[in-house]
Design a protein that fits this description.
This protein has 144 residues and is an alpha/beta fold. 31% of the residues lie in helices and 28% in strands. Strands 1-2-3-4-5-6 form a 6-stranded mixed sheet. A hairpin with a 5-residue loop joins β1 and β2. The radius of gyration is 14 Å and the shape is globular. It starts with 8 loop residues before the first helix and ends with a helix.
């Protein structure tokens, strides 16, 4: 599938490298994953053991400063990360979230995210939603 066009070229490159990294760490990945609140997480990742990460992509300082929704994502993941291009000054990002630097070829975790495990009911709801969205997207490729 091609990028959906909502991202800048920089953000799309960060997304691609980030997804490669997450897959290498054993995660299944969905981009633009809609949460129960209606907010869309840039990248949601689910590991076989049930661990859920959300990664918010920031392509510029302005992108970070105008975004007021990302704190809501903590309630929907075990760990919250920011992913940024190598050119962005990461000192503007909160230190209580993980940090990934990425470009279109790959990514590296520079700072792990603090763990705040989900309660079982929320984990189940997110996992079921993740599976349904993944299946619907796969079916959409086969029979648009």
């Amino acid at each position: 599938p091609q990028p959906d066009g909502r991202q800048s070229v920089t953000a799309a490159g960060v997304q691609r490298g980030l997804c490669r990294l997450l897959k290498a760490h054993g995660f299944a990945v969905l981009t633009e994953f809609t949460l129960a609140t209606g907010r869309r997480a840039d990248v949601a990742a689910l590991k076989a053991d049930g661990t859920i990460w959300i990664v918010e992509i920031k392509s510029s300082p302005e992108d970070f400063y105008v975004d007021v929704k990302w704190p809501e994502y903590r309630a929907y993941c075990d760990q919250l990360f920011f992913a940024v291009p190598p050119t962005l000054d990461a000192s503007i990002l909160p230190e209580d979230a993980g940090l990934v630097v990425a470009d279109q070829y790959g990514a590296e975790i520079l700072r792990p995210a603090p763990s705040h495990p989900l309660v079982a009911a929320r984990r189940k709801a997110i996992t079921v939603s993740f599976g349904r969205v993944a299946a619907q997207r796969l079916h959409g490729l086969w029979d648009p």
